[in-house]
Amino acid sequence: MAFYHNLKNYEAQKAKSIAQRLLILRKELSVSPGAKRAPGSLVVGSWNIRAFDGGRPRRDESFHYIAEIIDKFDICALQEIKKDLKPLRRLVKLLGPNWSYFVTDVTEGHAGNTERIAFLYNTNRVFFRNLIGELVLPPGDLINGRQIARTPFFASFQAEWFKFTLCSAHIAFKAAAGLADQELRRREISTIARALAARAKQEGEVYFFLGDMNIDSPQDPTMQALEDNGFKAPLFGPTNLAGGKHFDQLAYTGEGQRTDLLSHGKFDWRGAVYTPDDRDHYEPIAAQMRGEPYDNWPSKYSGWTTHEMSDHLPIWVEVMVDYSDAYLERFI
After folding, report:
1. 314 partner at 20 to 30 Å CA-CA among 66, 181, 251, 327?
2. Are 229 and 284 in contact (CB under 8 A)?
3. pLDDT of residue 256
4. What was the pLDDT predicted at 25?
5. Positive or negative torsion for Cα 309, 238, 193, 318
6. What percent of the chain is predicted at pLDDT more than 90?
């Protein structure tokens, strides 16, 4: 459960405002699809949290809202973590002492965008299996002589009977390496998926390939690159705030173990926090942060909120991890 004890350190009106919105958010989360999880299941999440926190510093309340959402997962991959790690450490602290994390070094260079990737996990439900690394391609798999623009990050975990490896990636958005935008994305996804599928087969365990893949549509060659390499890819619908783009994906292999998908979905936090009805409330706050009022605040508000939460929606899958009954039945 996310921690709330920091609220007592805020001025009374500020604590009241955050608590009121947290109650609304908790209610929204409690009735969202997948809230009633099955016994013996694991919830895996993925979220691109916009420039966390390398742009305009987020408000205190935003950290609480982000933590409340992540707390509903057992393990979550985060993309677009920036160079300064203090915001990430603060977020993990708000999740409570039963949460731990891993984070990559910064990917340097223009294409890397000084980004990190992180895994946050609830140690009451998941434990780390001491394998962690970044996916580095052999010479024959390089894309026009280059590695993946933002190095994919993987780590191995276990939940009850279920052994699995997560590989998180933020696929290139703009063209590089002499390729068109979509072709570069397709090549990156295909190359990563092929490498992960080979590892899954060799090791006999499930691999999750998740993250911001910048896929426009389920009919795109970029999505086909996942499926052609043996990944099962549930459809989440559009995950960008503007709608229409299926950027975020959470796919998995079926190698080695049963992978029973119980449910999957996305969560739109705009029904609880930074809602359209909150626009007038935040106008003077935004003006104070900026040092002057925004021109045409109604048109700027939506974009402003993406720097507080994100311009992506979090996604998740729920899979079965307790196969005790099936194991015992083998002896009967």
Report:
1. 181
2. no
3. 58
4. 97
5. positive
6. 76
Distance CA(179)–CA(190), nearest Å, equals: 15
Ramachandran angles phi, psi of 127, nearest 5°:
-130, 150
What's the mean pLDDT in 283-291? Answer: 95
- 5-269+309-329 architecture in CATH? 4-Layer Sandwich (3.60)
* Nearest Cα to Cα of residue 308 among 42, 112, 59, 102: 59
Q: Average pLDDT over the chain, rounded to whole?
A: 92
Task: Supply 240's token pair.
Answer: 């960008």
Decide: 137 and 195 in contact? Cβ < 8 Å: yes
Closest CA to 310 of 104, 51, 23, 127: 51
* Mode of pairing for the β-strands spanning 75-81 and 116-122: antiparallel
Other C-beta atoms closer than 10 Å to the C-beta of 173 total 16
Residues 39, 263, 65, 169, CA torsion sign: positive
Confidence of residue 178 (pLDDT cuts 50, 70, 90): low
Q: Parallel, antiparallel, or unpaired for β 127-134 and 153-159? A: antiparallel
Query: How many of the other CB atoms lie within 10 Å of CB of 280?
Result: 10
**Statement: residue 121 has pLDDT above 80:** yes
- DSSP secondary structure of 145-172: TB--SS--EEEEEEETTEEEEEEEEE--
Say what the pTM is.
0.94
Helix axes 86-95, 60-70, angle to 10 degrees: 60
